[in-house]
Each structure stands twice: as C-alpha cells, then as structure tokens.
Write a structure and sequence with these properties.
Blueprint: H1 4-16, H2 23-39, H3 41-52, H4 56-82, E1 85-87, E2 96-104, E3 107-111, H5 119-131, E4 134-138, H6 144-155, E5 163-165, H7 170-177, E6 183-187, H8 190-202, E7 207-210, E8 216-219, H9 225-237, E9 249-253, H10 257-272, H11 287-294, E10 301-304, E11 308-309, E12 314-315, E13 318-321, E14 338-344, H12 347-355, E15 362-366, H13 370-379, E16 384-387, E17 408-409, H14 415-420, E18 422-430
Helix pairs in contact: 2-4, 2-5, 3-4, 3-6, 4-5, 9-10, 12-13
Bound molecules: nicotinamide-adenine-dinucleotide.
InterPro entries: Ald_DH/histidinol_DH (IPR016161), Ald_DH_C (IPR016163), Ald_DH_CS_CYS (IPR016160), Ald_DH_CS_GLU (IPR029510), Ald_DH_N (IPR016162), Aldehyde_DH_dom (IPR015590), Aldehyde_DH_NAD(P) (IPR012394)
Family: Belongs to the aldehyde dehydrogenase family.
Active site: 210
Length: 433
C-alpha cells in the first residue's frame, strides 16, 4: 500500500507553493479535465457498459454531459467567485473597511460511490480544483473498470502532488481517512457516512457528506397522473433504480392509487417495451445487491414486473402494491428497480408519515394545489426535491444539491461546489489615522 502520509505531505507542500491558487491555473486544470472527457469518451462509455451495463445515452447525459456543463459554468464564473468581496463596516468601527476573501482549504480527499462513478467522482473533484485545492480521489471498488479508467485519466495527466487517484477498497479508504486532509468530501451510504464523520472528527476536518435515504414521491389526488407516472418511472428505473435521488417509494392518495399504478405500468412499457431484456437495461451492481433486492420481491403484491436473472444481475422494473411500512422493503433505502406504492387519505397523514422518519435526500410532490404544496414544503425537512417532477433538481448547477440529517450535510454543484471547498476569510482593515 502506498504511503498516504507521504502523499498528503507532498500535496500540502505543493499547495504551499501557491500555484493552485492562481485563477488561471485553476481554469487551465478545469479545461484539461473537460478535454479528458472528450478524448476518453469511448473509454468512459466502455467502462460503464462493463461495470453497470449503462446505456450509452445515459452515460453521455448523466456522466459526461453533466461534468462538462458544470466545468463550463465554473470556468465562466471563476474570476467572479474568487474575487474578494468588500462588505459594509458598522459605524462603531469608524475608519475601517471590511472584506471577505475566499481561500482554498488546502488538500482535499474525495471518496466516491459506484452508481454514477464518473459524475460523482469528477463533479466534486472539479469543485476542489475550482476553489484552488489539491485533491486525492478514491473511486468505488465496485465499478473497477471505471475506477481504473479514472486512475489512468488523472494520474497520467496531473502531477501526483496536485491531483491523483488512489484505487482500493475499504482498507484504502480507512487508511486515507487517518491522514490529516484539509477537507473531506464523501458520497455514499449513511452508514459509511457516520464512519467518515467519526474519522474526520479526530482531525476536526470540515466534511461534506452526500448520503442516501428513502426519498418519497407523494402523489396527491389532483395530480396529472399521466405525467406523474412517466416522471416517477423515469426517475426510479433509470440506472435500475441505483440513483441516490430516485423516488424510493410512492405515497399515493388512496383515490388515485390504482390508476397511478396502471399508468406507471404503461410508462414502463413505453420506455422499455413489453419484455425488458437484460441486454439494454442497467445491471444491479453486484451479487450482494442482487440478493438483497431479490428478497424484497415477495413483499406486498406484485403489480408490475418482478422477473429477474441472477446470472445477468438483472431485475426488471417492478412495482409492489399493498406494501406496509413494516415490510422489509420499507426498512432501508431500496437502491434498485423496485417501487413500493403505499397510500394516504389526508395530506396531514402523508406529512406525518414522512416527517416521522429520517430526513430524506429528496422529496417529490405531484400536485398543482398550492395549499398542498405549501403544507408539504413547510412541514417536512428533506435535502431538496421537485414539484411535479423527479430527480431533475440535481441536474441544474443553479441549485445547491445535498442532504440534511441522515441524508447528509453540506451541498455542492455550481457556485455551491466552489463555496464548499472554500474557506471564506473575513478581514477588518483598520486605518492608522
Ligand atoms: P458506500 O458507502 O458503500 O461506499 C462509498 C465509498 O465509501 C466507496 O468508495 C467505498 O469504497 C467507501 N467505503 C465503503 N465502506 C467504507 C468504510 N467502512 N470506511 C471507509 N470507506 C468506505 O456507498 P455505495 O454503495 O458506493 O453507494 C450507494 C449509497 O450512496 C446509497 O446510499 C446512495 O443513496 C448514496 N449516494 C448518495 C449520493 C448523493 O449525492 N447524496 C449520490 C450517490 C449515492
């Protein structure tokens, strides 16, 4: 195993040279990262096909396209974001001026998951670079082809003291977490998030935790059921449900539940055809995850789908009806193509149901009723979400993206990424007159 203490020290020394703080240096690095996305496009498509059977279109959109768009936005705005901001000074401090100067933390550690293994590694890395940090990236071992490709892309094109990829499993993460990084950015499960937070506490390292949870889609009785069904199915079954912000379950008003399930079935057929085959649809990432998901298939009543093939790590888009909160499928984040549908009668009941459980990463509400929208938004705490849509709040760099409570702390994307990896240093400058 590499000596990570030496690696961190080298990065800290390089950071101390001040090189990474130059705005042009950051812009050049961001552009180089962007160019790598183009020159390695085919390699990225191949790696994701091999690791997750990810369809090309989805890789182009959700892995490559999002990273390129984010970098373009950062490059456009970096000078503005990096400029110290002059602020007011109270009259009690006569003769003084005040300003806030953004400075990078130093050396950042980024630990990434496997479900969008390029996007969720490179978006935080771009944030670290934009803010002027050095960085070590540890991709997930569960997507080995992508991990290896990222290592080649970064390690062949940047000096190790500036940006580097360290590949490995839990022991590697554990060893890296012992080092005294200046910032830790972790994306993954809530359980491992706690381990990361504990390790970070030892060095009092500021940390962003991008975690998961059970994100509900509440479908009210006034909802446009055709659109709701399409958008729920789209957000749930993309990447075979292995999306942190995928609707985990549906809470449907009891009056429209049956029609909604019928329309979700229609939406699945329209997207994947009558026979979803293992060839054109994402794999479940591993046998362990397949077995975990397979055990949920007998919860409640099978309303749609349910076929599976362990040899192909394939589970077709599945909807479960008559599920209760006591069923195993409702205990933890599902993170697979299985959608339980539960019901409510009154809005207040739906609100209590969600608000009494750990704060979800996302929440989706399908209703045009302003009162219902206000009630839900004002009475449930969750990371972020959408009204009459799913997952797309995370694909705009104008909205900070992150969780709250069990679903995480801190946020990133766009300006929020720059802010996350930046310490804002406040200075009062007094005159000697
Ligand atoms: P995970 O927590 O198992 O692993 C994430 C990373 O942590 C990997 O690089 C892994 O090697 C490392 N790791 C695993 N165990 C560790 C340990 N004991 N100590 C230190 N490091 C360890 O998560 P995953 O299975 O890769 O991803 C799925 C989870 O991530 C889901 O819960 C999902 O909701 C969440 N997620 C959240 C976001 C978000 O942006 N909020 C995005 C994607 C995924």
């Amino acid at each position: 195993m590499e000596n990570y203490q030496e690696l961190t020290q080298k990065q800290k020394s390089f950071f101390r040279t001040g090189e990474t703080k130059h705005t042009q240096y950051r812009i050049d690095t961001l552009n180089k990262l962007k160019d790598l996305m183009t020159t390695h496009e085919q390699d990225i498509l191949d790696a994701l096909k091999a690791d997750l059977n990810k369809p090309e279109g989805e890789t182009k959109r959700a892995e490559i396209g999002l990273v390129v768009a984010e970098i373009n936005y950062m490059v456009e705005n970096l000078v503005n974001w990096s400029t110290p901001e002059e602020v007011d000074t109270p009259s009690t401090h006569e003769g003084a001026t005040s300003f806030i100067t953004p400075e990078p933390y130093g050396s950042a550690l980024v630990i990434a998951p496997w479900n969008y293994p390029v996007q969720l590694a490179l978006l935080p890395l771009a944030g670290a670079v934009a803010a002027g940090n050095t960085a070590v990236l540890k991709p997930s071992e569960l997507t080995p082809n992508t991990s290896n490709l990222l290592a080649n892309m970064i390690n062949d094109n940047f000096s190790r003291e500036y940006l580097c990829v360290v590949e490995g499993e839990v022991e590697t993460s554990t060893a890296l977490l012992k080092e005294d990084f200046d910032y830790i950015f972790f994306t993954g499960s809530t359980g491992v998030g706690r381990i990361v937070a504990e390790a970070a506490a030892k060095n009092l390292t500021p940390t962003t935790l991008e975690l998961g949870g059970k994100s509900p889609a509440i479908v009210h009785e006034d909802a446009d059921l055709n659109e709701a069904a399409k958008r729920i199915a789209g957000g749930k079954f993309a990447n075979a449900g292995q999306t942190c912000v995928a609707p985990d379950y549906v809470l449907a008003h009891s009056r429209i539940k049956d029609s909604l399930i019928a329309k979700i079935k229609e939406a699945i057929t329209n997207t994947y055809g009558e026979n979803v085959s293992a060839s054109d649809y994402n794999h479940v990432v591993s046998e362990r995850h397949f077995d975990r998901l397979y055990n949920f298939l007998d919860n409640g009543d099978m309303a749609v789908g349910g076929r599976s093939d362990r040899s192909q790590l394939f589970i077709e888009p599945t909807v479960l009806d008559n599920v209760s909160f006591e069923d195993p499928v409702m205990q933890d984040e599902i993170f697979g193509p299985i959608l339980p549908v539960l019901t409510y009668e009154e809005t207040s009941q739906a609100i209590d149901t969600v608000a009494n459980r750990p704060k979800p990463l996302a929440l989706y509400l399908f209703s045009d009723d302003q009162e219902v929208q206000d009630d839900v938004l004002n009475n449930i705490s969750f990371g972020g979400g959408a009204i009459n849509d799913t997952i797309n709040h995370m694909t705009t760099h104008y909205l900070p993206f992150g969780g709250v409570g069990d679903s995480g702390m801190g946020a990133y994307h766009g300006k929020a990424s720059f802010d996350t990896f930046t310490h804002f240093k406040s200075i009062l400058k007094r005159s000697n007159k």
